[in-house]
Write a structure and sequence with these properties.
The chain is of the alpha+beta class. It has helices at residues 70-74, 87-90, 120-123, 129-141, 219-223, and strands at 8-11, 17-20, 25-32, 38-46, 52-55, 92-95, 99-103, 147-151, 165-171, 176-183, 187-189, 201-204.
């Protein structure tokens, strides 16, 4: 799915994400099983998002997920460091009996859906329907699009048809707040006007510390990023 052309996210120089086109914004919580392995997404309450709005990417706003100009106070360096190569140029390929798995590790947002059922890199090697189904399930739940499962016979990717939207990720198991989960083929535009490859799902950094800006690299988990919205998702930060 490709979003309407009026929907876009523009990265501003050392400032927030400028969202245009009335993109819906809602909480998205990672649900884990009794072994603390990620298994599903749960959508929470939506935010009052206007036709145009600004989302914090320095991690310091007191009105998260929205920007309050804290980037100016803290002297945020939001320099974009991500490669501008398309996904397939970044990804490694792993061939299985019925599926092909592509993996661009640098896009990992540490959501951990790939660990369920014996890890996706092992599952794709197996020649049975259950393992193939799990491979597709785990790949499509990867919010950053790091992992994509492809049908070996048709060469077509398995992708969910997401409506254009942005998810504010919460991770109760790790007791951290995650990235912005951008879905539905919304165009992301760099501060210098470059248009990043349009994809069904990507994750944008909002802790301010990714080494792969504007994309998430999982640093929020390492630094214990907390957006203060934990009460809305039942997250105990203690």
């Amino acid at each position: 799915m490709t979003a309407p052309p009026e929907m876009s996210i523009t990265v501003t120089e050392n400032g927030p994400y400028m969202v245009a086109g009335g993109v819906p914004l809602a909480l998205q919580t990672i649900v884990s099983d009794e072994e603390d392995i990620s298994v599903e997404w749960r959508e929470g309450g939506s935010f009052d998002a206007e036709r145009e709005y600004r989302l914090c990417r320095c991690g310091q706003s007191s009105t998260k997920p929205f920007c309050d100009d804290s980037h100016e106070r803290v002297g945020f360096d939001g320099t974009e460091t991500a490669t501008r190569e398309p996904y397939l140029a970044q990804a490694e390929e792993q061939d299985g009996p019925t599926l092909i798995l592509t993996d661009a590790e640098q896009l990992c947002a540490f959501a951990r859906f790939c660990d369920y059922g014996g890890r996706i890199w092992n599952l794709v090697e197996r020649d049975d329907r259950e393992s193939a189904a799990l491979t597709v399930r785990e790949a499509t739940r990867c919010p950053s699009g790091r992992l994509v499962a492809w049908d070996r016979s048709t060469q077509e990717p398995h992708e969910e048809s997401y409506p254009p939207s942005i998810g504010v990720v919460e991770d109760p198991t790790e007791k951290v707040s995650g990235p912005l989960w951008v879905r539905g083929g919304i165009q992301v535009i760099a501060a210098d006007g470059h248009r990043y490859e349009v994809r069904s799902r990507i994750t944008l950094c909002r802790c301010g510390r990714s080494s792969n800006k504007p994309f998430c690299d999982g640093t929020h988990a390492a630094i214990g990023f907390d957006d203060g919205l934990g009460a809305a998702t039942g997250v105990d930060r203690e």
